[in-house]
Design brief:
With 365 residues, the protein is of the alpha+beta class. The protein is 45% helix and 16% strand. The protein has a domain of 224 residues: Alpha-Beta Complex (Cathepsin B, Chain A), CATH 3.90.70. Strands 1, 4, 5, 8, 9, 10 and 11 form a seven-stranded antiparallel beta sheet that branches. A two-stranded parallel sheet has the order 2-3. The protein has a two-stranded antiparallel ribbon with strand order 6-7.
Length: 365
């Protein structure tokens, strides 16, 4: 018969068995957890791709729409910028065209060359001067002569011309119309002197800031020089006559301020007259280039020119001029008188003492 201890031993379970049973439960729970986690993982893994698959296209589509909108916005901005640049270029071109047109107009009125490119071609007679303002209405607007002037004209022969041979200033003296005109007058009086020889008797200064009544400003040999006015030519004539010992045989007269009728009277008496006018009888342009030391502005006239009056015809209204640029030419009397007055009515003549007319001055008609 089993003892009590044996019964107790049979009834007793090993402690490891309890733990194993407990471990089995644990294993079962772990297995269930594993299954659950596996199922959950599989569900999550199977669900996640669906969610990610479903969300990715939606996100990409939204990004595409935003990208398309941004592209359209950028294109529109580029279009607006191109439009504005095109408008700016058009505005710049328009302003350039207007500025160039204004420049050309002002350039015509104020050319760089103070006396104008003075000289014409001796072979063609074509002028190289810049264009000036039109002159078509000036003859019609010329005022009628005063009673006194008309009376002096009535006392004159209706026409008179002297056989003066023109002397051309080119090519040696492109700015030397004044001294060339004096040379022409002296040649008429019988003096064998050249224009370049006469330059030696000019009071010349290369610089500005002085009076045209005292100096020839620049150089007669320089086409971009200024020139001089009547008193300088008077002194040059007196200097030459003194150099040849004839100062007592001739009277050099400054006729500046004389009425045009007095100029015609001199011609009728056999005395050619050096007169100031303009090249081709263009409208002069008054311009101040500097002030004198006392502050007085010194006026110069663009297109200033000096010539010799050698004849007139009151019936045809023409004057005959020995022009240093062109030779012997005729100009309208009213235009000639207008230019003469605009250039301060300057004139010079050289007359033999006693009023004797040289042998070479028989009137041509």
């Amino acid at each position: 018969m089993p003892t009590q201890n044996q019964r107790n031993n049979r009834n007793a379970r090993p402690a490891g068995t309890r733990r194993s049973s407990t471990g089995g439960s644990t294993s079962r729970r772990q297995s269930g957890s594993t299954r659950r986690s596996t199922g959950s993982a599989s569900r999550n893994s199977s669900g996640s791709p669906r969610r990610s698959t479903g969300s990715a296209p939606r996100n990409q589509s939204g990004t595409a729409r935003r990208s398309t909108g941004s592209s359209r916005s950028r294109n529109r901005r580029k279009y607006i910028i191109r439009q504005r640049v095109a408008l700016l270029i058009c505005a710049v071109l328009l302003c350039s065209i207007i500025g160039f047109a204004v420049y050309k107009l002002t350039r015509q009125d104020t050319p760089d060359n103070p006396q104008g490119p003075a000289q014409t071609s001796e072979s063609t007679g074509e002028s190289t001067e810049p264009a000036a303002r039109p002159e078509s209405t000036e003859a019609a607007t010329e005022p009628a002569p005063t009673t006194e002037a008309a009376g002096r004209l009535e006392e004159l022969p209706r026409s008179y011309k002297l056989p003066v041979e023109a002397v051309l200033q080119n090519p040696e003296l492109p700015s030397g119309c004044e001294i060339t005109s004096l040379t022409c007058l002296l040649n008429y009086l019988g003096f064998d002197v050249s224009k370049t020889e006469m330059v030696k008797h000019l009071n010349i200064t290369p610089n500005g800031g002085v009076s045209y009544y005292e100096y020839f400003v620049g150089s007669p040999y320089d086409p971009n020089s200024f020139g001089c006015f009547a008193p300088v030519i008077v002194k040059a004539a007196q200097s030459y006559l003194t150099s040849v010992g004839k100062e007592s045989d001739y009277v050099v007269s400054d006729l500046s301020g004389s009425d045009p009728a007095e100029l015609y009277r001199q011609v009728a008496q056999g005395n050619p007259v050096v007169v100031w006018g303009t090249m081709n009888m263009r409208e002069p342009i008054e311009r101040v280039y500097w002030n004198l030391p006392d502050g007085t502005p010194e006026m110069w006239y663009t297109y200033e020119h000096c010539m010799v009056l050698s004849g007139y015809d009151l019936d045809t209204g023409k004057v005959e001029i020995c022009d240093p640029q062109k030779g012997k030419v005729q100009y309208d009397q009213s235009i000639f008188e207008t230019r003469y007055k605009q250039l301060q009515s300057q004139a010079v003549t050289v007359v033999p003492v006693g009023g004797a007319v040289p042998v070479t001055t028989e009137p041509a008609g």
